[in-house]
Structure to design on (302 residues):
């Protein structure tokens, strides 16, 4: 713990971090919050008198104990949360949207969720993602970011506390490799259930999907509880659709792809993943999801 006796309030902004993982806030984030407070954007509507009073207090020197210091840090962290304007544009059934929700929840970041109509896209969605016009979109301070995996990286870099990627650069690169592998291969697994296949084509598709799952289980997950070890991370969020959503598709089509006897480690990961409180509390209703997936499959068949 940082030892503090007497120092000016102005000195607080120089405290970039509190060690031992208490509050891992970057100095620039504290500085941004402090600037907002100093200019009185939140307090007293920014009157010149209020700013003078605050500046006078800021330049003074007062005795602060460690407990006082922690209270002040909590105060700053509180304003970090309430002054961050964060919106998520999403659709209730999308596993890509849920990736973003899970990451924000794991970070403890408050946000406003705005449900979108896929068939009647809002002006906000079209303006925020003019290229693809799809969810999810994260809007942070009025600036939009599209594509779920890009958003996950943005969240990790913007709010580095409760890290979802390893600190070691090599391990971080390995994690990103498996995120990329999942991005390139998961669609071929879900398409097996959504798209109509002739018998011979289906057998080929199943074989290809099983080969992909074998690679994920043996080389990606291995004997670990989660892809990064004992704790859930960004790779797990990227593969999250293999739990709730794939299980629904398996039930609809009548094919058990990730069989507990054939792929025991990946099957165990699916169960462990869904039992993480943040994940468990932020999954779409299963029965409602089944109806939606059935409708999606019918759309492909037509």
């Amino acid at each position: 713990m940082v030892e503090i006796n007497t120092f000016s309030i102005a000195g607080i902004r120089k405290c970039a971090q509190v060690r031992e993982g208490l509050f891992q806030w970057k100095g620039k984030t504290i500085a941004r919050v402090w600037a907002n407070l100093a200019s009185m954007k939140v307090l007293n509507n920014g009157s010149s008198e209020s700013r003078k009073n605050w500046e006078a207090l800021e330049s003074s020197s007062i005795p602060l104990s460690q407990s006082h210091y922690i209270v002040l840090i909590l105060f700053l962290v509180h304003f970090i949360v309430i002054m961050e304007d964060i919106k998520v544009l999403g659709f209730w059934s999308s596993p890509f949207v849920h990736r973003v929700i899970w990451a924000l929840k794991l970070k403890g970041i408050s946000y406003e969720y705005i449900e979108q109509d896929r068939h009647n896209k809002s002006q906000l969605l079209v303006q925020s993602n003019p290229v693809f016009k799809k969810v999810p979109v994260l809007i942070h301070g009025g600036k939009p970011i599209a594509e779920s995996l890009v958003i996950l990286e943005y969240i990790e870099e913007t709010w580095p506390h409760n890290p979802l990627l390893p600190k070691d650069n090599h391990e971080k690169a390995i994690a990103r490799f498996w995120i990329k592998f999942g991005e390139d291969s998961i669609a071929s697994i879900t398409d097996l259930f959504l798209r109509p296949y002739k018998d011979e084509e289906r057998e080929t598709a199943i074989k290809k999907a099983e080969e992909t799952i074998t690679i994920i289980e043996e080389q990606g997950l291995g004997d670990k509880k989660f892809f990064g070890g004992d704790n859930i991370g960004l790779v797990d969020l990227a593969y999250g659709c293999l739990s709730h959503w794939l299980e629904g598709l398996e039930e609809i089509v009548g094919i058990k792809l990730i069989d507990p006897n054939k792929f025991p480690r990946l099957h165990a990961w699916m169960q462990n993943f869904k039992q993480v409180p943040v994940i468990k509390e932020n999954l779409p209703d299963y029965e409602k999801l089944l109806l939606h997936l059935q409708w999606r499959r019918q759309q492909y068949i037509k």
User: Anything to note?
Assistant: Confidence is low (pLDDT under 50) at residues 1-48.
